Amino acid sequence: MKLIDNSEKTLISTTDLIDLAERALSPDELNHLPTYPTNNKSYRKAKRLLERWENLVCIQKSDKKNFDLRLASLGLNRDSALIGLQTRRRLQVKDLPDWAITLGKILNQSIYPPDSSIQSLLDNIDIENQILFPEILHPFINYYICELKSIWSKSELYVKPKVLNQIAENLLTRLSHICARTIAYDVKQKSALGSLNGKTPQSRYQYYVNEILGTPEGLFGLLNRYPVLARLLTTVTEQAITNTNQWLKRLEFDYQAITSKFSSGEKPGLVEKVELGLSEPHCGGQTVWFMEFTSGLRLGYKPRSLRLDVAYLELLKWLNQAQPELTLKAAPVLDCQDYGWVLWIETTECQNIEEVAQYFQRLGAHLAVFYFLGGTDFHEDNFLANGSQPIPVDLEGIGAMALACHADRQSQDKLPRPWQLDTVFASLMLPRWYNKPGYEQEVISMSPFTGRKEGQIWPIPMPTYYNLGTDKLCFKFEYRESRTSLSLPKLRGKFIDAKDFIGKVLNGFDTTYQTFVKHRDSLLSNTGIITAFQNLPTRVILRDTNSYHDLLLWSTAPDNLTSGIDYDVSLEIVCGTPILDETREDALSYGSVEKKALWVRDVPYFSGLTSSCYLSSEDGTNFGPINEYSGYDYIHHRLKVASEMDLNWQKELIRVSLKIFFVPQGKPIALTHENTELISVPTLDRQAAARIYSHLLDLGDKIENQVTHHSEGTGWITLGISGNNYGLPQLGNAIPWSSTGSAGTVIFMANLAAYTKNKSWSKLSLDAVKTTAKMAGRYSSDFKLYQSGFNGLPLVIYALLVCAEKLGDESCLDLAYDLVMKIPARMWGEVTNPDVMGGSASSILALIALHKKVPDDELIKRIQLIGQGILRYQEKEGSNAGGFLIPSAPRPLLGMAHGAAGIAYALSKMSSYLGDSTLLPPIHAALEYERSHYNQEHQDWPSLWKDPKSPIFMNGWCGGAAGIGLARLEMLDLLGEEGIAEIEASTKATIRHIGSSGHHLCCGEAGRIIFLVNAARKLNRPDLLQSAVQATEKMLDFYEQKGYWKLQSMAARSIVPGLTDGVAGIGLSLLTLIDPSKTSQLLTLS
Fold it and tell me: Are 496 and 505 in contact (CB under 8 A)?
């Protein structure tokens, strides 16, 4: 069979095309082809690819087991994968894929120079400040135009001819972005080799695009070197042809219906303007289109079902009759099953402040509706401000929450309402927070109620091209200011946020919630309006879509485009992080279907039906059941359990989350005469002490303002990294018995209340600690809190002891004792983790502290059993002898939180308190293990989480010198001179690390400051106190100048109230500096 005309005019022969296509195929496409012999070069490349594949799969989680799991999901192991990567396959003419045949046509039908119509189109494109390559890519544009000529001529009754050029320009933009990185690399390479004629960067670039790539041979040469680039350009061109053809046919078929629905029966004229790419590309490059008719009518074309929009409009019609005082609106639509047309909503200003208030009241009402409908993804870009009406413009997330995450409904229902996951936060209408690993600026926040903060930087580096139109064209990633959100109402040209209208928001939510409850029976009946939401298609977002965009950009790097195998491996990064619950059997199988979408430049799309428990990908692969209940089941459940208690809790979440958004940036604190005179610290000058005191008062106020009151008592909302939110920051009600929750925050607030004699903070601390004790008692057995260290009973007991001592409430001692005795002695001895932070070593410390206040032999019995349990984890021989192996660690660790220092310290306290000398040998063995790893070259202790052959050094309390030094300070009576020497080494290493990481307590500046203050006191070393003061001043300088703190998981204002991860820990370090003898020593639980 002669596939391609091999005349003299033919640019690419059948043989050349087969060779190019063969190199652009994915491993799956190559598998069925005949093999031919490999060579050493193939083996070496396969080895490199296998290593790269493993690195990409493990990039999110460094555990190498992830790669083995990924291979197993493909039916491979490392050996068979290596064989597959080096096996060479031969493509036959009969197997040539469609895209390759199209590529042959594109290249062989190309005209150089372009004909007048194509040249006119290209000349009218403004390429200034745009990364466009019309001189190179015109063969693809020519093919697109030619393929559409016949259908376009039939569409002149509906569309003006110039619209084709507008669509072609959009195609040129897409194609240019796909090849931009390769062209930037190629032009620089040829310029460096002296292959470009011209005296200026501009003339050399023109030579490159006109005389090299602007020729048939030059273009084919580029595509032949980068065959995957040829495939991607062709694929996107084919998509554009298919999608334009489909749009034209649908427009013609629906023209009369559009006229009737949107134009009062009068023909709207011809389409004279379109904009494409107004959404992410899905299902073959399909996106939302904007279209404007000659009559002025503006519509959106959405290539998906609008049945959810129809149902929502019906629900609003019912709701507006039930509560006519609010009158909510959504955009009118024409649903055509698989696609639809929607009225384009214009943003308009409010006429007065009363309309602004109405806007936020209605936005609160929409929040209530989406809460009951289990809707997600209703962020700031999915609302438009149309006068006093907030208009939701993308409703495909209704009912999606049931499929977006796995949650055992029965287990969820056992939890008190304040700790269940299905809250108003799930809608994404309330402030959502965003940052990425490696981003050191302030975490950003946005929502329809708040917009985006002025001048805030988007935490994802965006591609920026420099030196356009020159041979110095280059590509950089840069952080940019985020876009303005159009979800805020405008008054006299100024955007207005909800700061002064939180009451209106709450009123709108309350009114609508009450309306649903009032009509609950009719809504749940077989004829209720809710039945309209049965069996409707809903989109489910399983991964942060920004990660897809990052990958689509990164995958177009030249080295990824040299072969289909290279490109396929570059996409494997999505296969290393499981979607949904990682314990599911299909947790890693989503990556394969995601890759299929990414191969055709789509953002992967998952959907389901509101009455189903299953998910589908765009290629038809089904997953599930995801949950035991569907989206429609969830709507019924939410209506059935709606109550005044739930209403009050959701309103509390709304109120506090909006207040958190509006927490002001840090700034220099004016030292009042009152503060300067009140505070007197012998070791600090009056100005420094007053500054610290003023910051303490500010922290106390901010933490108090973030408190929540719910059906179980008092606690705090916090901002933390969440696995249920794609690993992004998320507001939530922190687990109360953890160091990031109430138990931790109370320790600081109780100390602050005692120091300042603030009765309000004292009451708050007692309310919160008693709520925590109640919750811990209820769940201590279920969650094995007696084994959980700083995330369980030991911290709760310590918090109760602090409140008893600082606030004089002796009932806290009874609560602490009751918590201990609720767990049988035998269970305390069932140690599953011997460390301080997450295990049982901290139980020893907490129970000793409790026994000093409540002397009871039952406490001693438990301490002894815990000690025996811990010793079972000590390595007895080999290179790790003396160390303690904790779960998930590759080897016994060093340091206070998870390693030998903390465990040895706890055992030493037990030995001293009980007079048990049998513990001394294992204590010294642990210390010797730690000493054996001291790095003389770096004068520091390495982190053994990583390979010690390539040492890295942690620098805080949890795993660094500060924690080791604190432990040695507490063991000085046992260690003598040897301990002094190690403390000296710890102080030197700690001082070197000042300013090197965050400000938080666990592994940041606050922990270092506390160690230096304690060392200064115990060793009588004023120089160490001075180092602590200097570190504190630098920390406060940073906060005052930048406006935020560097916390454990993100940089943020005073909005993370936790002790180890947030501002409570910073506050505790400030208190330790100005009142060291009376401030609780949390880091040693002493």
Answer: no
- Distance CA(697)–CA(693), nearest Å, equals 6
**3-class DSSP state of 710:** strand
Tokens of 557: 């790097």
pLDDT for position 123: 81
Return the structure tokens found at 831. Answer: 């140690």
Q: What value, to the nearest 5°, has the Cα angle with vertex 859 and ends 858 and 865?
A: 90
Which value, to the nearest 10 degrees, does the dihedral of the CA atoms of residues 748, 749, 751, 754 take? 170
503 burial (CB, 10 Å; 0-12 / 13-18 / 19+) is middle
User: In angstroms, rounded to a whole number, what is the distance separating the alpha carbons of residues 473 and 454?
Assistant: 31
Q: Residue 974: which H helix or E strand, with range?
A: helix 972-975
CA distance 836 to 897: 5
Residue in 1045, 974, 326 with CA at minimum distance from that of residue 719 = 1045
Burial group, residue 880, by CB count within 10 angstroms (0-12, 13-18, 19+): middle
In the structure encoding, which two tokens stand for residue 526, read together? 């077989």
CA dihedral 564, 570, 573, 576 (to 10 degrees): 50
The percentage of the chain sitting over the pLDDT mark of 90, rounded to a whole number, equals 75
The answer to whether 188 and 474 are in contact (CB under 8 A) is yes
Residue with token string 């030059």: 218
Asked whether the predicted pLDDT for residue 407 surpasses 60, the reply is no
pLDDT category at 1085 given cuts 50, 70, 90 is very high
Q: What is the token pair recorded at 928?
A: 């010797």
Whether residue 129 has pLDDT greater than 80: no
Whole-number Å distance between alpha carbons of 276 and 288: 6
Separation of alpha carbons 351 and 387, rounded Å: 7
pLDDT of residue 10: 59
* Three-class secondary structure of residue 889 per DSSP: coil
Helices 759-779 and 742-756, axial angle in degrees (round to 10): 150
> Does 409 have pLDDT greater than 70?
no
Q: How far from the centroid of its chain's Cα atoms is residue 168's Cα?
A: 35
The model scores a pTM over 0.70: yes
Give the 3-state secondary structure percentages of the chain, helix then strand then coil, rounded to 5. Answer: 55, 10, 35
Q: Indicate the average pLDDT of the chain.
A: 91
Query: Considering the chain, what percentage of its residues have pLDDT values greater than 70?
Result: 95
Burial class (CB in 10 A: 0-12, 13-18, 19+), 267: middle
- Whether 150 contacts 181, CB under 8 Å: no
Q: How far apart are CA 478 and CA 314, in angstroms?
A: 45
* Cβ neighbours of residue 422 closer than 8 Å, sequence gap 6 or more: 374, 401, 407, 412, 634, 638
Q: Is 631 exposed, middle or buried, given 0-12, 13-18 or 19+ CB atoms closer than 10 A? A: buried
CA–CA gap between residue 440 and residue 1035 (Å, rounded): 15
Q: Find the Cα–Cα–Cα–Cα dihedral 213, 216, 222, 223, rounded to 10°.
A: 140
Q: Which element (helix H / strand E) includes 278?
A: none
